[in-house]
């Protein structure tokens, strides 16, 4: 026989704030921030893709994913430099990082475009696109992290590297 379950405590509300002990991913306020950011990011991606004329190579999606990787690295490093993941920093991370940049970038389009290119006359474009996006995206994220880490962290890295 199992022990009786404890009641979950007060619910979240405008007056009471987040429920104590409730994980962030279950708090309506944070879910709303991610949804709002995701809607704006997805709309932004759509508008950019509509503005770039088709060329047979997914230039817009590749650029979106690379810029998104850079911006996410920059955002997360900047927030980490300013303190722990709580309060307004957590809200910004969820709104801008998980939401906006999560909606802006698109792994599914990368995968679909790669398959589409692979089925075409020049399959080498599929490899160039997939690996190019991955490699340049990682470099862009690294650059964003380096810039977001600020000069103090660069000095610390130099000291630790000796």
Note down, in words, how this protein is organized:
The structure is a single chain. With about 160 residues, the protein is an all-alpha fold. The protein has one domain. Helix content is about 70%, strand content about 0%. It is built from five helices and no strands. About 25% of the residues are buried. Mean pLDDT is about 85; it is low at about 1-15. Its main location: membrane. One of its GO terms (biological process) is cellular detoxification of fluoride. One of its GO terms (cellular component) is plasma membrane. This is Fluoride-specific ion channel FluC. Keywords: Cell membrane, Ion channel, Ion transport, Membrane, Metal-binding, Sodium, Transmembrane, Transmembrane helix, Transport.
Describe the protein's topology.
Layout: H1 28-51, H2 59-82, H3 87-104, H4 107-118, H5 124-160
Catalytic activity: fluoride(in) = fluoride(out)
Main location: membrane
Keywords: Cell membrane, Ion channel, Ion transport, Membrane, Metal-binding, Sodium, Transmembrane, Transmembrane helix, Transport
Summarize the amount of helix as a percent range.
over 70%
Rg from alpha-carbon coordinates: 21 Å
- Total DSSP E strands: 0
* Nearest-integer average pLDDT: 85
